[in-house]
Structures are given as structure tokens and as C-alpha cells.
Write a structure and sequence with these properties.
- The chain contains eleven helices and five strands.
- It has about 230 residues and is an alpha/beta fold.
- Helix 1 links the parallel strand 1 and strand 2.
- About 45% of the residues are buried.
- The protein binds calcium ion.
- Calcium ion binds next to loops.
- The site of calcium ion has 5 residues, from loops.
């Protein structure tokens, strides 16, 4: 039998959250595959080729970013959304740099969580207000591209183009104050669709940016041997 429903892989060790996502996303017409460890998740990702992976960062065996990195590398068609209790800068940046296109905190309501998943499936890039703030702060810090130039020309070149436009900054600033996407659209006189595309671009720029910044930081700390520098946290 051919499975035609889009598949969502939930990688999460908390049974209650898995059960909730299975029920609510199943009701939305999705086929939900569940994994309770990162290792299981990677195996399931290879087997089921999900359209979307929802990844918890605090997994019992590996850090969620490892799974995200795997999915980004091996399943380029698969969107990755982080659900986590961690709103700290390090986790946010590492996740986005690894390839996540949505980052949602577990303190949101159940209804909100499902709405964010559907939003991502519709081509959006969900972002909690606290995350918008981190993205803004991080992009203001500067890439340190020059420092990287000698080691990784490509990254430095990309980093130079990775600053946010005024409009992207406006969108993130309003989001960080807690405005909804449609309120942001109203205030800026743009459609919700345009709002989400600005958010998506911000994620993409931050991925380049945080990758470059991480390499710079590592180089400054003397952690890089020649030829290294592929990730922020390992
Ligand atoms: Ca967990």
C-alpha cells in the first residue's frame, strides 16, 4: 500500500508530548512516526523519509542538534522544527546553524504548538518571540568575517552578505515584542506571507552568520587545527 499522507517524524523522549503530537497531527491528516531517542530518530528518518521532523533538543542519547545536522545533510527535502524548553542563545544558534527552520518553545499552548507545525508545513518559519530577540541580538554582533577569511574563504564571503535588511529587522523587532504575524503584517503594511518569508530569510542568514561567528570564536580560542571549523559546538 502506498502511503500518501505527508509524514511527520517526532523525535522526543517525553511520552506525553509524543502522544499529544501523534493525536493532534494525526487528526490534521498527517502520518506520525515517533522516536524516543536521537539514534532511533536517525534510523526512522532514513526509513520513513519524513516531510517534517520535530526534534526535541534534550534527548537521552545525543543532543538534538546532531539529529538536525543529520537530517539537513541527508534529507534536504525534510523541514526541521525544534521544540524545546531551552531558549538560550547557544541552543538556538546551534540549532539554526545545524539546519532547523523553526524553533518553538514548549511553554507555548498545545493549540499554538500545532498551529506552528502547520505553519511550517505551509511554507512558513515559526519563531517564538524570545527567539526573534536572540536572532536580532546575534545579527547585531557582527560576523567577524575578516578573522575567518584566512581559514574559510567561503564562509567569510557568505558572512559578509548575511546582515539583515531593514524590513527583516523590523519584522523580528515586532515579533520579539510579542506581536503575532498578522499584527506584524498590519503594522508594516505587508502580507502575512511576506512576514513569514522575512522570517525564513532571517533564519537562513543567521545560519550562515552563526556558522561564521562560531568559527571565529573557535579560532580565537585556539580550538581549531588547520582545516577544521565545521560546526559551532563540537
Ligand atoms: Ca527531552
Amino acid at each position: 500500500m502506498t502511503e500518501l499522507r505527508p509524514t511527520i517524524l517526532v523525535i522526543e523522549d517525553e511520552p506525553e508530548i509524543r502522544r499529544f503530537l501523534r493525536t493532534s497531527l494525526g487528526a490534521e491528516g498527517y502520518r506520525v512516526v515517533e522516536a524516543d531517542t536521537g539514534e532511533r530518530g536517525v534510523i526512522d528518518a532514513g526509513t520513513h523519509k519524513p516531510d517534517l521532523a520535530i526534534v526535541d533538543l534534550g534527548l537521552p542519547d545525543v543532543h538534538g542538534t546532531e539529529v538536525i545536522r543529520y537530517a539537513a545533510r541527508h534529507l534536504p527535502e525534510c523541514d526541521v522544527m525544534v521544540i524545546t524548553m531551552f531558549a538560550d542563545e547557544r541552543n538556538v544558534l546551534a540549532s539554526i546553524e545545524a539546519g532547523a527552520t523553526g524553533y518553538v518553545l514548549k511553554d507555548c499552548s498545545d493549540a499554538d504548538l500545532v498551529a506552528r507545525v502547520l505553519e511550517l508545513r505551509a511554507g512558513g518559519s515559526p519563531m517564538s518571540p524570545g527567539i526573534a530577540r536572540i536572532v536580532l541580538n546575534q545579527m547585531r554582533l557582527g560576523t567577524g568575517g575578516a578573522t575567518v577569511a584566512g581559514r574559510r574563504g567561503t564562509v567569510a564571503a557568505e558572512g559578509a552578505q548575511s546582515s539583515l535588511t531593514t524590513r527583516e529587522t523590523d519584522v523580528l523587532r515586532l515579533l520579539s515584542r510579542g506581536y503575532t504575524y498578522s499584527e506584524v503584517g498590519d503594522r508594516l503594511g505587508i502580507s502575512v506571507h511576506t512576514v513569514t518569508s522575512h522570517i525564513k530569510n532571517s533564519y537562513r542568514k543567521l545560519a550562515v552568520h552563526s556558522g561564521a561567528a562560531a568559527v571565529t570564536r573557535a579560532a580565537e580560542l585556539g580550538l581549531l587545527r588547520p582545516g577544521e571549523g565545521n560546526g559551532p559546538t563540537r
